[in-house]
Specification:
The protein has 346 residues and is α/β, with parallel strands linked by helices. Helix content is 40%, strand content 19%. The strands form two sheets. Strands 4, 5, 6, 7, 8, 9, 10, 11 and 12 form a nine-stranded mixed beta sheet that branches. Strands 1-2-3 form a three-stranded antiparallel beta sheet. The longest helix is centred in the first third of the chain and has 19 residues. Bound molecules: magnesium ion.
Amino acid sequence: MKITAVETEILEEPVKHQYVWRKGLPGSGTHSISTKVMIRTDEGVTGEAYAPRGAIMVDLIDRRLRGILIGQDPLLKEHLWREVWEIDRIEELPLYALGTVDIALWDLTAKLAGLPLYKVIGGARNRIPAYASTVTFRDTAEFLDVADQCLDYGFRAIKLHAWGDPRKDAQLGQDLRAHVGPDVALMYDGSAGFDLIDAIYVGRALAEAGFFWYEEPMREFNIDAYRRLAKAVDIPLLSAETSDGAHYNVADFIAFDAAHMVRTSTHYKGGITGGLRVAHLAESFNMRAEVHGGGPANLALACAIPNTTWYESLIYSNPIEVEAGIGRDGAISPPNVPGIGWDVPQ
Ligand SMILES: [Mg+2]
């Protein structure tokens, strides 16, 4: 079998519920732009993936990636993953571009096998609990209102993306715990907004409030800062979400005591191949690799590996609108179709 064509299509659509993240971080804007990538073969099977940006992905496919794919056997995924890695050395690819081709090739592989992807790459479970991952709401009252709606729906775990103000965010964590009681799993995502001293302050408050994890409070360039943070706070750190270098980099977060749990994902860790490597690396240290972000590819990864706890599902609005496929038990199953199942209505 040979790859005969690599096609791209830019998809642009209005954002249904516009939202913001912490202070300083760009929010949704008015339109979302993504690129659909289709890898076609001489046997008629097509693999598909989506990259979360537009013109930049089309440019990379046109100038660099199509050329290494045409004429190749699409099932030699390790080989092609390394070819993309070589392009990264020249281009310093955006993290999602490192994985887009690999995701499409795995979609194609699972379609050939006639199986849902999660069964091809591991098959740890066919249903996984989701956590409600908030955007940043106006004030504490609105966060508590949204939390109530999430719990009423059936979620048993909530993660905050808050304002990026250390005092206010720490207080919000404690107010939310007081509001929901001890039995709801709570997490906090700093979206890399703090320096070390503010990260320590927030981490201590979240530890007091019994939060399950403390995610990415600082940019992940300096591993030593995370090592110092881990020594200073008594809460599990979830690290290495946006750091470059896939499993090579996650290995250093683990080796230098800068993580208690690590992030894996299909879009920031080099597709399915890289996401699995990170998960298996973490498992060898008895660590969880929590899957970052939603969508069918990440859902397949989360259901393929044993050492992850939840699927991340974003809550963009108040009143809340729950992602299709999440049941009243707060859990979700991957589509039961060959491949990733991009277009399967839940
Ligand atoms: Mg995050």
